């Protein structure tokens, strides 16, 4: 029997049943292979997890044959042993920052299952645009409370807005809106401290940035030049400019697909999302898809579902849900949910069940439950009481327990997440050195 999470767990199901299909012979073959293998399947105790670098996680597996739990041993493996290793009891060891697939395979070769594991350091970095700096904070593993470790200047940059780290946690980059450059920092692997590592000219008013999963390329939303600008990451953590792709729109938000093969941006008239395919040979972009039109006042925070299938566009006055074909880059309409709030930032819980929006002009944070069968959402919470704040962006730590919100008029907000219901509870605030524009978790 096909479980509700099949689209998240089984690559054949995801490719055949959970994407836009062309009904070609390849899809038919995959479909029949999928049906033939439904009598043999593996269930894991954790389909996803976040573990701190240096710590361990115990995974376990069960094998079902024709619906009956069958006693067997498993062959455990890691897709990248430099990120995490696993022994033959299913004990996972976090080695370095990054994402890895831990695979449990039956000895008869008939079935396997994958747990998506993120290894993290427990650092939060935030752009402090009023004082031209980046704040560095450390998360307490037990409570989620952040402790400020000081700041690092973006000299000779000014007004840092966007912020991103490479997947391996070695380098940090900021889009410096005032000075028109990207600042580079080296990250101390033991302490998380930042060391300035130069800068790269980025054109007028650079904003937010994304990095490809392999740490090879950086893409920048260049508001002043109305373009997406592409850079390669060099071995020393500096950047080399590749090309500029005109968007005919100056926008601050940019997103990358979960598989790392596409960039998402708003169209020229702000009422569609467009997708660009990344050429991994040279970093260039090709526009390949345009979504159906939706109402929008100019905002557009895009969040991607962990299964890679759904996009959530937080615009005004509605949240638009799109279905994404990860092979072609095409986008199709799923649903629209009226909220009448101005969304600046958004995030989806690692378990894929909860979607959160930061409502900048309404002084609130909203939580929505996500239907795993169709991607549709329903509101379950609006957290208010932030009057006078300028809430900007939200991040969720990879283990899914805590959320942090940047406030450009105050302190970082720390919230606990109920992992069963998704409900947020404000725990406290922390001063990282100044008001914040954006933030990222490493």
TrEMBL record:
Family stated for the protein in its record: Belongs to the cycloisomerase 2 family.
Keyword DNA damage found: no
Keywords associated with the record: Carbohydrate metabolism, Glucose metabolism
Entries under Pfam families matching the protein: Big_2, Lactonase
Origin superkingdom: Bacteria
Keyword check for Protein biosynthesis: no
UniProt name for this protein: 6-phosphogluconolactonase
Boundaries of every BIG2 domain copy: 38-116
């Amino acid at each position: 029997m096909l479980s509700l999470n099949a689209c998240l767990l089984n690559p054949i199901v995801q490719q055949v049943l959970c994407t836009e299909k062309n009904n070609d012979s390849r899809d038919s073959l995959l479909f029949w292979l999928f049906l033939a293998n439904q009598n043999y399947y593996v269930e894991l105790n954790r389909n996803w997890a976040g573990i701190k670098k240096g710590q361990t996680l115990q995974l376990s597996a069960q094998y079902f044959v024709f619906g009956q739990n069958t006693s067997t041993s498993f062959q455990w493996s890691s897709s990248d042993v430099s990120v995490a290793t696993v022994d033959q009891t299913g004990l996972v060891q976090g080695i370095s920052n990054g994402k890895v697939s831990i695979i449990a395979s039956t000895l008869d070769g008939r079935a396997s299952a994958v747990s998506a594991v993120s290894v993290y350091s427990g650092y939060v970095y935030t752009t402090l645009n009023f004082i031209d700096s980046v704040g560095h904070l450390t998360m307490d593993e037990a409570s989620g409370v952040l402790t400020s470790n000081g700041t690092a200047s973006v000299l000779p940059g000014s007004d840092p807005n966007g912020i991103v780290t490479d997947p391996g946690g070695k380098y940090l980059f900021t889009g410096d809106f005032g000075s028109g450059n990207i600042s580079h920092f080296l990250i101390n692997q033991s302490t998380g401290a930042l060391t300035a590592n130069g800068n790269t000219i980025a054109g007028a008013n650079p904003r937010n940035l994304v990095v490809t999963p392999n740490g090879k390329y950086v893409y920048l939303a260049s508001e002043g030049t109305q373009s997406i600008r592409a850079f390669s990451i060099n071995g020393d953590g500096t950047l080399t400019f590749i090309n500029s792709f005109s968007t005919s729109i100056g926008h601050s938000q940019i997103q990358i697909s979960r598989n790392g093969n596409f960039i998402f941006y708003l169209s020229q008239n702000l009422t569609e999302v467009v997708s660009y395919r990344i050429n991994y040979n040279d970093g260039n972009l090709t526009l390949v898809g345009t979504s159906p039109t939706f109402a929008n006042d100019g905002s557009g925070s895009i969040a991607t579902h962990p299964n890679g299938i759904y996009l959530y566009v937080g615009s005004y006055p509605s949240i638009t849900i799109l279905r994404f074909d990860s092979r072609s880059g095409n986008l199709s309409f799923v649903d629209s949910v009226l909220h009448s709030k101005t969304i600046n930032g958004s995030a989806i819980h690692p378990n894929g069940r909860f979607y959160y929006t930061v409502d900048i002009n309404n002084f609130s944070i909203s939580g929505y439950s996500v239907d795993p069968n169709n991607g549709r959402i329903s509101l379950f919470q609006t957290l208010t009481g932030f009057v006078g704040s300028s809430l900007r962006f939200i991040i969720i730590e990879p283990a899914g327990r805590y959320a942090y919100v940047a406030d450009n008029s105050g302190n970082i907000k720390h919230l606990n997440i109920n992992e069963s219901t998704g409900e947020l509870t404000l725990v406290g605030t922390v001063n990282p050195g100044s008001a914040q524009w954006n933030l990222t978790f490493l």
